[in-house]
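User: Run a structure prediction on this.
Assistant: Running it now.
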Amino acid sequence: MAVQSLQDIRRRIRSVQNTQQITRAMEMVSAAKLKRAQARVNAARPYAAKMDEMLRSLSAAAEGLDHPLFEKRPVRRTGVVIMSGDRGLAGSFNANVLRMAERLLHERPREDLRLVVVGRKALQYLTRRGWKPALVYTDLGDVPDATRVRRMTEEITGLFLSGEVDEVFLVFTRFISTLNRRVVTEKFLPIEGAASEGDSAGDYIFEPSPDAIFGALLPRYAVTRLLAAQAESLASEHSARMVAMGSATQNADEMINQLVIRRNRARQAAITKEIAELVGGAEALK
């Protein structure tokens, strides 16, 4: 019985060691992806901030501008864009996004909501709960694809322009640091173009016209915001997965140490039993 128990312990040690190799490899891969993703986030933030600043300043200067993406109307239906990951093994990353989304969804009746799902995990979660998203985007990869994000933006703004929804919110995870992330909800549409207190309208001469300039600028602004949100989400996912796999590797180390102690005790017990049997047999032959 002791020999069989020893074999079981050795089998478990090998199994945990194999798992540890996988988690360590995943941690290293996520660390490499995080480094590149963090660089993309740091590059996107100043561009998005400057685009927002320019839009507010220009919209303040162009009084009476009438553009569909600025249109504020009575809210009958709300669109919610939920950004999760395509894969798991990322700690609480997906769960936190879905928890925030649930709080937002519970504020309005289901029939007054239209969902846009980005990521397979959010799709699986919402489908199990009876939701039928208006738009679904999965298999996004590890790098934001500008062409695909542009198409996503056109389809999401299409819901707003067609009157299918009267406002759109983004739910995504903002990257702060490797160990710190925060799920946020931001209004995406209609675009808040009016200058707030402290914004300078400036003295602009519009060529060819404000309508033509904003007609080209606003779609780019929407794409920039969605692209920045996806970059933040991907960086957060990579950091969460790196931390989770690092913890799993450390836990595997502790489990292996405990199993080695149990193996040594089982081996010692087996040897002691064999010695006792030999001594007993020798005494019986006297």
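Helices lie at 2-61, 93-105, 120-128, 146-161, 210-285.
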